[in-house]
Specification:
Layout lengths: L5 H15 L4 H21 L3 H30 L8 H28 L8 H16 L6 H5 L22 H5 L7 H22 L9 H19 L2 H9 L3 H16 L3 H12 L5 H14 L3 H22 L1 H10 L16 H8 L3 H22 L5 H18 L9 H9 L13 E3 L6 E3 L1
Helix pairs in contact: 2-3, 3-4, 4-9, 4-10, 8-9, 8-11, 9-19, 11-12, 11-13, 11-18, 11-19, 12-13, 12-14, 13-14, 13-18, 14-15, 16-17, 17-18, 18-19
C-alpha cells in the first residue's frame, strides 16, 4: 500500500524551493557569505591559535567563493543558459572553495608545524600520531593506566587515546618519517576525499528512474548530491575541523559512503564502509546499528552486519590481546568520565549544563540520554527504515539528540548530524518518493501517479 505524507511533501517542497532558487546559486551565495563571516570572526576572536590561523586563510577563500557566485548570479540574469552558471560550474566553485578553506590552511599549518611552530595543531593530531608510534613499537596504540599515572600531571590527558584502534593508522606516517606531509591531518584529508569520491560515484552510478533516465531527474539528483558534498566539505564546521584536527572527517565520510552504498542497493559494501568508520571512532556505531536494521528490512541484515560489526571487532582484537587494561582504560573508562583525568570536551549543550548545574546532574543527563536511546530503539522496531533516506534521517536526528544530551561533548560534533541530514536528499530513489493514488474511472482500480 502506498501512503502519501502531506507533511513530508510540504517540507520537501519548501526545501526544494529554497535549494532551487536561482538555479541553486542563491543558497550557494548564502552558504559562502555566512561562512566568510564565521571565518573572519574566528580569526579575530577564537582563543585557540590553530582556529585563528584557519580563520585568517579561510575567510579569504570564502570571500572569493562569494564573489564568484555573485558574478554567476549577474551572468545568469543576462544569459540564463550559460555554462558558467550551471551545475558543473557550481561543482567547480565548491571544489575550489574546499581547497581554499580547508586543504590550503591544512597544508599551511602542517608546514609551519614541521618548521617548529607548536601552535599549529589541536591536541587530537598529536594524540593520533603518538598512537601510531605506540602501535608501531608495542603493537597497541594505548598506554595502560599505570603508564598514564606515571606521566607528569600536565601530560596525563595527552596519554589517553579515546579512539578505536584503527585511528592509529593515520598516525603511522609520522612514526616513520617526520615531515609536513606525514602530519596526520594530511592523511585524514586523503581518507575523506577518497571516501567522498567513492560515495559520489556510487550515487551517480545508480539509475535515477526505474526505466530510462531523464535529464531532469539526473539534474535533481546531482544538485542534491552537490549540496550534500558541500555540507561535508566547505561547511565551516567541517573545514575548520579538517584543517586543525581532522579525526572526525574520515569517520563522517565513511558513514556517508555507507549510506550511498545503501541507496545503491549494495548492503555488503555499506556494511564494510560503516565498519571501517566504526574501527576508527565510536560515533559510527549508532550509524552501523541503524544500517543493520535497514538491511534486515531487505533480507540483507547478515551482509551488513558482517562488515559493520566484524571490522570493528577485528580492529579491537590485537589491542585486546596485547594489553586488555590499556584498551579498557582508553576506550571505555576515559570516555565515560572515569579516567585518571577528565575530558576537556565541554560545550554548553543541555547534557553538559544539566550535569554541571543540578544535584546528581550526571545521572540525570545519563538518564535522559538513555531515554532518547530507548525512544530511537522503539522507533526502529515499530517503523524500521526501509530506505537509505530514512536511515540517514534517523541517524542524523539520533546523533543530534545524543550530542545534545551527552554530559561531555564538543560543538564540533554537530558536523555529523548536519552532514547526514543534508546528505539524505541525495539518497532518494523513485520508489522512495511518496506517490499519489489516483482512481481509474474505467476499471474502478487505483493507479499511482
Amino acid at each position: 500500500m502506498i501512503v502519501d505524507d502531506p507533511t513530508a511533501r510540504r517540507r520537501r517542497w519548501h526545501w526544494r524551493t529554497l535549494d532551487n532558487a536561482a538555479g541553486g546559486l542563491a543558497l550557494d551565495l548564502g552558504l559562502y557569505a555566512v561562512s566568510a563571516t564565521f571565518a573572519a570572526i574566528t580569526a579575530v576572536t577564537s582563543t585557540l591559535l590553530p582556529h585563528r590561523a584557519w580563520g585568517a586563510v579561510a575567510a579569504v577563500g570564502y570571500l572569493l567563493a562569494t564573489l564568484t557566485v555573485i558574478a554567476q548570479l549577474l551572468l545568469r540574469r543576462r544569459s540564463p543558459t550559460s555554462r558558467l552558471t550551471g551545475l558543473p560550474a557550481r561543482w567547480t566553485v565548491a571544489g575550489l572553495a574546499w581547497a581554499a578553506t580547508s586543504l590550503l590552511p591544512l597544508a599551511w599549518q602542517s608546514i609551519d608545524r614541521a618548521g617548529g611552530r607548536t601552535d599549529r595543531a589541536q591536541e587530537e593530531v598529536l594524540v593520533v600520531e603518538h598512537a601510531g608510534s605506540r602501535l608501531l613499537e608495542h603493537g597497541t596504540p594505548y598506554l595502560g593506566p599505570d603508564a598514564i599515572a606515571a606521566l607528569p600531571p600536565g601530560e596525563q590527558l595527552m596519554g589517553y587515546t579515546p579512539y578505536q584502534p584503527g585511528m592509529a593508522m593515520f598516525g603511522l606516517p609520522r612514526a616513520l618519517l617526520d615531515t609536513w606531509w606525514t602530519d596526520s591531518r594530511v592523511w585524514f584529508a586523503v581518507g575523506t576525499a577518497l571516501a567522498l569520491a567513492l560515495a559520489v560515484a556510487a550515487l551517480r552510478g545508480k539509475p535515477v528512474t526505474a526505466g530510462q533516465a531523464t535529464s531532469a531527474a539526473t539534474r535533481q539528483r546531482d544538485a542534491a548530491l552537490l549540496r550534500g558534498v558541500q555540507a561535508a566539505t566547505v561547511l565551516p564546521i567541517c573545514a575548520l575541523t579538517l584543517a586543525t584536527g581532522g579525526d572526525d572527517l574520515p569517520v563522517l565520510a565513511l558513514c556517508l559512503l555507507a549510506l550511498a552504498f545503501a541507496a545503491a542497493d549494495r548492503p555488503g559494501r555499506a556494511g564494510l564502509a560503516v565498519g571501517l568508520a566504526g574501527a576508527l571512532k565510536l560515533f559510527a556505531w549508532p550509524v552501523a546499528l541503524v544500517l543493520i536494521v535497514w538491511g534486515l528490512t531487505r533480507r540483507a541484515g547478515t551482509r551488513v552486519a558482517a562488515g559493520a560489526i566484524g571490522l570493528p571487532i577485528a580492529a579491537l582484537l590485537p589491542a585486546l590481546l596485547v594489553d586488555r587494561d590499556a584498551l579498557i582504560e582508553n576506550v571505555l573508562r576515559f570516555p565515560l568520565g572515569h579516567g585518571l583525568v577528565t575530558s576537556p570536551a565541554q560545550s554548553p549543550f543541555p547534557g553538559y549544563l544539566i550535569a554541571s548545574a543540578l544535584p546528581a546532574g550526571r545521572l540525570v543527563a545519563a538518564a535522559l540520554l538513555v531515554a532518547a536511546g530507548v525512544a530511537i530503539a522503539v522507533r526502529l522496531v515499530r517503523r524500521p527504515p526501509r530506505t537509505a533516506v530514512a536511515t540517514a534521517v534517523i541517524c542524523g536526528y539520533g546523533l543530534l539528540a545524543a550530542i545534545a544530551l551527552m554530559p561531555t561533548t564538543r560543538f564540533g560534533y554537530l558536523l555529523y548530524p548536519l552532514a547526514l541530514l543534508t546528505w539524505a536528499p541525495a539518497l532518494h530513489r523513485p520508489v522512495d518518493t511518496p506517490t499519489t493514488v489516483v482512481p481509474d474511472e474505467r476499471s474502478g482500480r487505483t493507479t499511482s501517479a
